[in-house]
Amino acid sequence: MSLRLKLTFLYSTVLALTMLIFGALVYYFMERNLNYEADSAVAGIAGEVIRSTKIVGSLRQVVLPDVDVFATPNTYIQVVDRSGTVAAQSNNLGGQIMPLSEETLRRAAGGSDFFETVMSGSQGLRIYNRPLVLEGQVIGVLQVGRILGPTEAALKRLRLLLLFGGGVILVLAGTAGWLLAGAALKPINRITETASAIQARDLSRRINYSGPGDEVGRLAGTLDNMLDRLQDAYHGLEKAEAAQRRFVSDASHELRTPLTTIRGNVELLRKMGDADPATRAEALADIAGEAERMSRLVSDLLVLARADSKLELKKEEINPVTLLTDAARTGSALSGEVDFQAGDFSALEGYKLVGDADYLKQIFLILIENAFKYTPAGGQVRLEAGTDGSFLEINVTDSGIGIAESDLPYIFERFYRADQARSGEGTGLGLAIAGWIATEHGGAISVASKVGEGSTFTVRLPIA
């Protein structure tokens, strides 16, 4: 059973029960009201008859009024003595006698009035019995009766109206409920269609609900937001997969090349033995260099693995002047044919950083080594630092080959290497490591570059 049919059925059931209870209450109170009016009418007529009764002479004869004055087409009057003999009756009885039982005479002899319902032929008759009392003795009974046909006819019409009208209302309400349920569930159908489309990997589909902000509207909005996040996550996964494939290609190349070199030199050493000391020394130097290169690659991968495991750095107060001076000293030893210059760091005296000194120094060395790597001989690399009072800014500027604008958004991603840098010795992990270290210290790293004019990397670190 569909949800729409369930809602319609539930709504119709509740409405039917409500109408049934309401109709029963209406019928009950209408029946009580009609019977009460009929009883009040016959009791009033009986009172008028009693008030018109007179006693004549010493024989204590009871002189009754003309009962036809009080009779109506549906109301009959009859007076009987204690033995049940009719003393007077209204002409509309046509000589017939209203039903009178021994039980009625016994109850009337008790001196109290009462109502009773009897059958006269095929129709009901409501009779009011009122004793006639003289000097404390019951001498007869006054009976005023009214046929129940009109009352029963009115109640029958009410029953038909309630049944027929209720049925019509129930059908109309059920149809309206079916239409309203369809309108209310229309966004759900759109959600289902969107989900089906997403199963076909069309993550761009959205519900785009434009109705009121009710429960369904909030659900549609929440699902749209969730789909946005899913699409972003999916695209992120696609990028990660692309980066992973790129890394596997780069890593396999980076590892295969030194391994090939090492294996070739080992084979050479095996064949020549100690016959040529100079060649032997050169082969051993190649083996040592390639082993060191592999060691750097493994070390970079280890740092990123620690980053993925949410490694908490051991932080303490650091003197930025000492940190930058050490980095500049190490950079000078690595500069080779590039002109390396370090700025004046005295303006940073009195300021402190909170962080891990080894990792912070690694950021600067990564940037300095990258600058050396992509700056041709005779070029210039400069390390400078300053502060704006809240952050320490360290700039590494080079006059190297620069970075293409299309590569700038991706250079801090893991395993990414610009096409013009892929022939170098790097692994594409250094800048990713630098970005992670800066973030862990509450800072950030950015770059400005133009192809052929060089690059400037800026590290911002919060001052303690």
TrEMBL record:
<dbReference type="GO" id="GO:0000155">
    <property type="term" value="F:phosphorelay sensor kinase activity"/>
</dbReference>
<keyword id="KW-0418">Kinase</keyword>
<dbReference type="InterPro" id="IPR003660">
    <property type="entry name" value="HAMP_dom"/>
</dbReference>
<keyword id="KW-0472">Membrane</keyword>
<keyword id="KW-0597">Phosphoprotein</keyword>
<dbReference type="InterPro" id="IPR004358">
    <property type="entry name" value="Sig_transdc_His_kin-like_C"/>
</dbReference>
<dbReference type="InterPro" id="IPR005467">
    <property type="entry name" value="His_kinase_dom"/>
</dbReference>
<dbReference type="InterPro" id="IPR003594">
    <property type="entry name" value="HATPase_dom"/>
</dbReference>
<dbReference type="Pfam" id="PF00672">
    <property type="entry name" value="HAMP"/>
</dbReference>
<feature type="domain" description="HAMP">
    <location>
        <begin position="182"/>
        <end position="235"/>
    </location>
</feature>
<feature type="domain" description="Histidine kinase">
    <location>
        <begin position="250"/>
        <end position="464"/>
    </location>
</feature>
<dbReference type="InterPro" id="IPR003661">
    <property type="entry name" value="HisK_dim/P_dom"/>
</dbReference>
<feature type="transmembrane region" description="Helical">
    <location>
        <begin position="7"/>
        <end position="30"/>
    </location>
</feature>
<keyword id="KW-1133">Transmembrane helix</keyword>
<dbReference type="GO" id="GO:0005886">
    <property type="term" value="C:plasma membrane"/>
</dbReference>
<dbReference type="Pfam" id="PF00512">
    <property type="entry name" value="HisKA"/>
</dbReference>
<dbReference type="Pfam" id="PF02518">
    <property type="entry name" value="HATPase_c"/>
</dbReference>
<keyword id="KW-0902">Two-component regulatory system</keyword>
<protein>
    <recommendedName>
        <fullName>histidine kinase</fullName>
        <ecNumber>2.7.13.3</ecNumber>
    </recommendedName>
</protein>
<keyword id="KW-0812">Transmembrane</keyword>
<dbReference type="InterPro" id="IPR050428">
    <property type="entry name" value="TCS_sensor_his_kinase"/>
</dbReference>
<keyword id="KW-0808">Transferase</keyword>
<dbReference type="InterPro" id="IPR036097">
    <property type="entry name" value="HisK_dim/P_sf"/>
</dbReference>
<feature type="transmembrane region" description="Helical">
    <location>
        <begin position="160"/>
        <end position="181"/>
    </location>
</feature>
<dbReference type="InterPro" id="IPR036890">
    <property type="entry name" value="HATPase_C_sf"/>
</dbReference>
